Amino acid sequence: MTTIERPLTTAHMPPDRYRAFTLHNLESLPQLDRIPAHIVEGIRVVGQVLPFKTNSYVVNELINWDDVPHDPIFVLNFPQPDMLEPGHYALVKQALDSGNQETLDAAVETVRRALNPHPAGQMEHNVPEIYGHKLTGMQHKYRETVLFFPSNGQTCHAYCTFCFRWPQFVGDDEMKFAMRETELLVAYLQEHEEVTDLLITGGDPLVMSARNLRTYIEPVLEAKIPHLRTIRIGSKALSYWPYRFTRDKDADDLLALFREVKEAGIHLALMAHLNHPRELSTPAVEQAIARILETGAQIRTQSPLMRNINDDADTWAQMWKLQVGLGLIPYYMFLARDTGAQNYFSVPLVRATEIFRGAYTQVSGICRTVRGPSMSTDPGKIQVLGETEVDGRKLLALSFIQGRNPDWVMRPFFARLDRGATWIDELRPAFGAERFFYEDELQEMFDEDVRHLARFEESRS
After folding, report:
1. Long-range contacts for 256-259 (Cβ within 8 Å, ≥24 apart)?
2. Could you tell me the domains of the chain?
3. Are 160 and 73 in contact (CB under 8 A)?
4. What is the pLDDT of residue 8?
5. Which of its termini does the chain have fewer beta carbons within 10 Å around, N or C?
6. Which pLDDT band, with edges at 50, 70 and 90, does 4 fall under?
7. Which of 330, 327, 318 is nearest to 370 (CA)?
8. Is a pLDDT exceeding 90 seen at residue 460?
9. Coil, strand, or helix at residue 357?
10. Which residues of 68-77 are buried (b: 16+ CB within 10 A; e: fewer)?
């Protein structure tokens, strides 16, 4: 297996004892004096807007403090000054310096609302309902897959600075997805026979105790839903707290729950968020992976492509090789979502395809389960296939991996070549068309959603 250089630990406590670092106790971070002053200021300012939390494992085992502030894991965890537009940064800094909490709150709210907190229509168009209840802790965008946001899983062991679900963590209840009513989840799954996959996500569901996680999963197993084939759990725990599977007091209980899912005849997939090869470099993560795989669960990996963290082909090729060597299945390369600090992380679409292709050509077929680069957009997951030429015109080829209408999937379509575009809304259709093939139908879907919401609200008044 490929080896990678690991930072020397500077641990000041047992490595498997969890300790969080946030704005409230930043001064207690042992390595604080190794962070340049302007970056510390940036953490304090940007951390008012975007969530900031890291932990003892990350700072002691993963970050190379000799390379700060450029170290990719440092950038992944610690807010940087350029993650806000200059005007937004100045507004928040001035408010913070004023010492007036109301002024600061107003400035932060202004900036957050400008950062597109809920991309791809997840608040307006993806929330299902049953028995006259809006299931605000669920999303059902694609026919086969329901997302469930357990209320006890709305945090993480550490926060990624790129996180597209950052509103979950900033204390704004209007921005949260969370649900306690497991009974309604089961009822919805029973009623919708098209659903084969349940994705439990957050936040990170694995911040919960095994006992709490069981309260969500066990009723689903007991219901014996015949069309439910897979339960997925989206988690960053392998990277940020691998001791969750090895030395936490209920680690054995958690793995026992994984086995019970398999014994119930349902496939269990841990959807692991891994952004850099170094996250796979410690003995702790190797042991955690081995224990998970022993339960019969699979681990599939996904990550956005991010400038300043992993925007080169060699990093991705190394990451995929390490993953396969450890028994993991490369699944997705995403593009930075159009929310939060996208301007800091985004890579132009054409460049993204070059990176993907450059990595893909370095790996054997066993790594080529990965798909991408993919944008999670209003209409669906759009794969950027790359630059091409038709009748002498240079174009960008695209295709749906998933769509609100399943009939859109795997239908190639073309946009005018724009080497600077970073998202679908910056592209224009090719061949003189005014709209992409799916746009009229998508608008009809959204108009119907508006009419349906109006009828729903009227029925409740």
Report:
1. 256/210, 257/210, 257/213, 257/214, 257/217, 258/292, 258/295, 258/296, 258/297, 259/295, 259/296
2. 20-113 (no CATH), 117-339 (3.20.20.70), 346-461 (no CATH)
3. no
4. 47
5. C
6. low
7. 330
8. no
9. helix
10. bbebbbbbbb
